[in-house]
Design a protein that fits this description.
Elements (H helix, E strand, L loop, with lengths): L17 H18 L3 E11 L4 E4 L2 E5 L2 E4 L4 E8 L6 E7 L9 H8 L3 E11 L8 H20 L5
Parallel strand pairs: 1-7
Antiparallel strand pairs: 1-4, 2-3, 2-5, 5-6
């Protein structure tokens, strides 16, 4: 039987119900922890020798070296680096995830930890000078290919 004007958080014996009072407070504390939780910033810096080379990462041009880009996932990346006068470099590189990015540590690092975590990686590439074949070699190769083409055109197709 209820009495008008009596707080519902008071027991019949007049004792204060701590559970009902602390639950909203606990929910508010948890919501605050999630809202102001930390974050993980991931950055990849790509350097080349010589500088100024065009860098393409996973089919997306990201700029001229040295260049720093944010990234969202770890794993295999396709890298293409090119510059006039140098041989184009096509390669793959892997980014290995740190411990705080594995379950269950990722929850604490990305949600509950109040600070900011910065994962910074650096890749260095050296480009080789582009070697052009000598003029005589080009002419010899062209004559060889022309001879092969002429021999094929003289042979009748097989049935």
């Amino acid at each position: 039987m209820g009495y008008p004007g009596i707080n519902k958080q008071v027991h019949r014996k007049g004792r204060f119900d701590m559970t009902r009072c602390l639950m909203p407070l606990f929910a508010l504390a948890l919501a605050s922890a999630v809202a102001i939780g930390g974050c993980v910033e991931r950055r990849l810096r790509i350097n080349t020798a010589p500088q100024g080379a065009t860098v393409i990462l996973n089919d997306q041009e990201i700029g001229a070296s040295p260049v720093t880009v944010p990234f969202n996932w770890y794993g295999d990346y396709w890298v293409r680096i090119s510059k006039d006068g140098y041989a184009t470099l096509d390669t793959h590189r892997k980014l290995k995830a740190p411990l705080h990015d594995y379950f269950p540590f990722d929850f604490f690092a990305q949600i509950l930890y109040p600070g900011r975590i910065v994962d910074s990686y650096e890749w260095n590439f050296e480009l080789a000078f582009k070697e052009y074949p000598a003029r005589d070699t080009l002419i010899e190769n062209a004559q060889f290919l022309q001879n092969q083409l002429e021999q094929r055109s003289l042979t009748p197709p097989s049935r």
